[in-house]
Design brief:
Length: 249
């Protein structure tokens, strides 16, 4: 069942979304050569707690990190650790905050002194696809219109859309119905209703769409070994235009 949140619940979704956004932005600002992904996660975890929230990821199906950090050919769900960021890296961070019973889920991808035109295209197009999807997340529209809009941006940029991981409803739990694929024909699936909150999260690769989960059980890698990018916002479906909840206010 696709949940429709009440006005009171949306107030809480705004609060957790704002916290997740603030921690995302503060942590992204610390991404630099020489910094380890573990240091980023320690910082993020501390900020989440200072703001009064808790990591929505730590312990989720046993996930061991405060946030996810995914570098270069790591697509999503990378586990923070001793890996040092280097010049030329593409680093995505995914932050989930639980506050007052509701979750905000958001991700961004940062280029660390990247000069490779193909990689810049990757990151720019993945972000543009997120916003193309958000534009379609309106009451009365169809779920797959979001998916299709995202896919079109990826294809137009010559990129490969990850199919094994998808966006999702989000609220009291991190993964609610519906699934929000980043591909598909338009005009399919349920009609979107005002008050539904979804995490829209394109994952695009250079080279090919294939991905594999590492033996650690979490880290998702491109099969090609080429870089990947990931952007995510939690949004509330509204009449007219969606409200992005994971925005620092
Ligand atoms: N935040 C991820 C998503 O966007 C899920 C992370 S699950 C974790 O769906 F366990 F890896 F944290
Ligand atoms: Co996420
Ligand atoms: Co998500």
């Amino acid at each position: 069942m696709i949940i429709v949140k009440t006005a009171e619940e949306l107030v809480k979704m705004r609060a957790s979304g704002q916290m997740a956004a603030q921690v995302r932005d503060e942590t992204a600002a610390r991404i630099a050569p020489g910094v380890t992904t573990g240091e980023l996660a320690d910082f993020a975890g501390q900020r989440i707690r200072e703001l009064g929230g808790e990591s929505a990821f730590l312990g989720y199906h046993g996930y061991p990190g405060q946030i996810c950090t995914s570098v270069n050919d790591e697509v999503v769900h990378g586990i923070p650790g001793p890996q040092r960021i280097e010049l030329g890296d593409v680093v995505s961070i995914d932050v989930g905050v639980l506050y007052d019973g509701y979750i905000g889920d958001t991700a961004t991808t940062v280029m660390v002194g990247v000069t490779d035109r193909e990689v810049i295209n990757l990151v720019k197009a993945t972000e543009a696809a997120l916003y193309a999807g958000i534009e379609k997340a309106v009451a009365g529209g169809r779920l797959s219109d979001v998916s299709h809009a995202i896919e079109q941006v990826g294809l137009a940029a010559g990129l490969f859309v990850v199919r094994d991981f998808v966006g999702h409803g989000v609220g009291k739990t991190m993964h609610e119905e519906p699934q929000v694929p980043n591909f598909g024909k338009p005009g399919r699936g349920p009609r979107l209703r005002a008050g539904t909150t979804i995490a829209i999260e394109p994952m695009f690769n250079i080279g090919s769409a294939g991905v594999d989960v590492q033996p650690d059980g979490w880290t998702v890698l491109t099969r090609s070994g080429r870089p990947s990018a990931h952007f995510e916002h939690t949004v509330a479906v509204c009449d007219g235009t969606a409200e992005i909840l994971t925005v620092a206010r």
